[in-house]
Amino acid sequence: MADQSPTLAPTSNTVHGPAVARAARARRRTSARSPFSAASLEASRFMPRTATRRQPSHSHCRRRRPSSGRIRRPRIPIGRHSSGRGRRGRTTRQGITPRLTAAPPRREDAARPVPRAREPTVRIFLVLAASPNPTFASSLWRSNLHDPLVAMGHDVVLFEEGVLPLFDLDPALTSTAGPRGIFTQRFLDAVEAAHRAAPLDLVLTYVSDSHLEPDAVRRVRERVAPVVNFFCNNIHQFHLVRRIAPAFDLCLVPEHAALARYRAVGAEPLFWPMAANPDVYRPLPLAPEYGATFAGQRYGERTTHLLALLDAGVDAHAFGQGWSADGPLAAPGSAEARGVPAAAARLALDALRGRLPWRALADRAAWRALRARHAAALHGPLDDAGYVALFSRSRVSLGFLDLGDTHRTLRPLRQVRLREFEATMAGAFYLTGWLEELGEHYVLGREIECYRSRAELVDKCRWYLAHDDARAAVARAGHARARRDHTWTRRFEALFAELRRRGRIAA
């Protein structure tokens, strides 16, 4: 049966003036009462949602409302937030540090996006951790989800303090209830303060079950603005958002195969693929110094793939957590690190979970061989600037789509990742694993290349390293496609168009 989930609607070419959004906010400024006060919540029980929420309006038919004589509430500071300006939009941020390095100059021959009609300004409360990993400095998600909104001219209130640590908690454990309750109250307080300063049009979050209580999300939806949540890695981590997903107006899902899971729990998913920020990921005037590279954590089949390339004579290198040649053979705290009895117990448990024990043994043997024979090809993590530069320093950029240790099963799990868009946006020749869903984003074989087996990975890597013109043609085509279709600006335009179509934000 064809997938019936909503898809990204094409962006309208109609020009809406910023006055539309300002007027919509002004109509909601009718009470000094807190949206979360006891009186307000009691009143909301007997008041339809349309009476407390803005209605879609149109500049060609809207009349100016008579003044009520109220004094307009002045803008007030939001707790410890401080205001600052982006290139065009405005952001109110908490605990933000400047970028570690300045952006390199843009190449003169780089493709530039086609200008499109300016959309109405949207005031957004954004709950987002700047980095996906607490062990090294990164602003990956801030660069990809926050900065494009500011560059589009939207008014963004960024709330990020305390978001990242809660991702490490298991939402199923009772011990998570305490931290979740504390964060929920801080979230409600911050939303209230931001909404009183100037009415919010949208609350956009990147959270899991460990962060918020579903009732708090519903309260914000009823009294403030629609709430939309983004969450990735749903193929193998959907259990982390199963409880809270139905509370949101929309759930942004980057993986096609995960849409059915959201619908099964009563949530409303919207297919919203990954993308990349062209102001961050772009070709740099650097001479290639590596044959093939991969940047990311070491797990899954990545070790055996890299070993196969190096043993075949390919100048391949890996950067990231777990790759350092002088690091431990086993991850600290793992069953392998605790000794033979613990490792044997882990193998037995894996067998009960459907894992094939001999594949785990093969992974460990490959890691030992890789360290022994190719230590010079193994490197630690890169910072954000080094990560982007690596695409230009490499003739071939590698991608691996397997998830966790599912390659040890008879049915491995794979998904499209952020890297599938970062690499092409940075102008790299990209060679990644084959997945049917990739065909929705690229012309396979023309804009990116794919492999279906380890042998094909080695063959294609060697062939393209020996054919510079063919490799450059694929890189150019992939870069042009990414600039045209896979920017976060395009994704947000489609999201806002869908929300307007549903009447969730003012038209």
Automatic annotation (TrEMBL):
GO terms for molecular function: transferase activity. It comes from the Bacteria. Residues 92-104 have a biased composition (Low complexity). Keywords: Transferase. Pfam families: Glyco_trans_1_2. Residues 1-15 have a biased composition (Polar residues). Residues 1-114 are annotated as: Disordered. Residues 51-75, 82-91 have a biased composition (Basic residues). The keyword Transferase applies. Residues 366-496 form the Spore protein YkvP/CgeB glycosyl transferase-like domain. Residues 105-114 have a biased composition (Basic and acidic residues). The keyword Transferase applies. This is Glycosyltransferase family 1 protein. It comes from Eiseniibacteriota bacterium.
